[in-house]
Amino acid sequence: MYIRRFDPWKNELCSCPTKYSLNPYTGCAHGCIYCYASCYIKDFFRCREKPRIIESLRKDIKKVPIGSLISLCNTSDPYPPMEKEKIITRRCLEIFKEYEMKVLIITKSDLVCRDIDLLKDMQTAVTITITTLKYHEKLEPYAPNPFNRLKALEKLNKEGIPTGLRLDPIIPMVNEEEIEEILQLASYTGVKHVTTSTFKPRWDSWKRLISVFPNLSNKLENLYLIKGQRIGNSYYLNSTLRENMISKIKEICISLSLSFSTCRENLPNYINSKSCDGSHLIEGEV
Ligand code: SF4
User: Fold this and answer.
1) Which tens digit of pLDDT belongs to each residue from 219-271?
2) Ligand 1 mean position to 6 CA, how many Å?
3) How far apart are the first and last CA of the chain?
């Protein structure tokens, strides 16, 4: 069954509402160096179609209660470059529409705008991830340009589709200084909600980060491996540092009248919205 109850590897820090999850593709071609999914899925950066996805989804969807929340996607991007030709995500959306599902889209691609005609008639919200305006060629080498993502947010909002910004992950000394600018630009587009989190590397994403920013290697090692903490298989910054980083983002969000949440930080005082993933936007709640 390709559509499954969302259960991020039984992570106790996950505060997501009950939802289902579907990844129309296996792997992702965007090549983000900080990607967490690459440690779970073999050959992750080689994006490929799931065999007989549409036929399977047509069967699976009958086992999901009508009106359920479906997250698209959590371990890949629903709009990789090959979606332009394959049109698989759009066909999944058509099935979700038929079964009156609520759909939360999480993407880095402005290709989502192709499906505005469909999304307008659905209970949906779109969250777009923007982590940097300067270092996208290093951090997200094959994802669409972040300014195109901002334009996509603007377009979606103009069409009445609620949107959120995923400002995650924040990587110390890499994209911290851009936070305020990204939040301001996103708020101009009409975004209503922000989900943010700090970078929590596993070994593979850690090695990629260090190879791309070798000059920061000692400082990052000090923050993560010496002063940080290990939770499960991930390395976290220590909680005081995370709290400082997140509280600054919260203040900016409040000043811009944006609702705000964190993802798996275990900082409950830093969530002022009705959901951590932005799914409350589907109901028009902010
Ligand atoms: S877009 Fe998402 S799934 Fe794809 S590589 Fe980047 S972080 Fe991973």
Assistant:
1) 999 999 999 999 888 999 999 999 999 999 999 999 999 999 998 888 777 77
2) 17
3) 33
Based on the structure, what is the number of domains in the chain? 1
Probe target for ligand 1 pocket from 25, 33, 35, 129, with the most ligand atoms within 8 Å of CB: 35
Does the residue 286 lie in any domain?
no
Cis peptide leading into residue 65 (ω within 30°): no
Q: Is residue 285 part of a domain?
A: no
Is 77 near ligand 1, meaning CB less than 6 Å away?
yes
Classify residue 163: in a domain, yes or no.
Answer: yes
Euclidean distance between CA atoms 67 and 34, whole angstroms? 33
Mutate which of 45, 46, 108, 112 for ligand 1 pocket (most atoms within 8 A of beta carbon): 108
Give the residue numbers spanning the domain of 271.
4-280
Residue indicated by tokens 């997250």: 71
CA angle 266, 216, 75 (to 5 degrees): 45
Strands of 37-94, DSSP E: 48-49, 69-72
List pLDDT tens digits, range 27-68: 999 999 999 999 989 999 999 999 999 999 999 999 999 999
The CATH number assigned to the domain holding 113 equals 3.80.30.30
DSSP-based three-state secondary structure for 213: coil
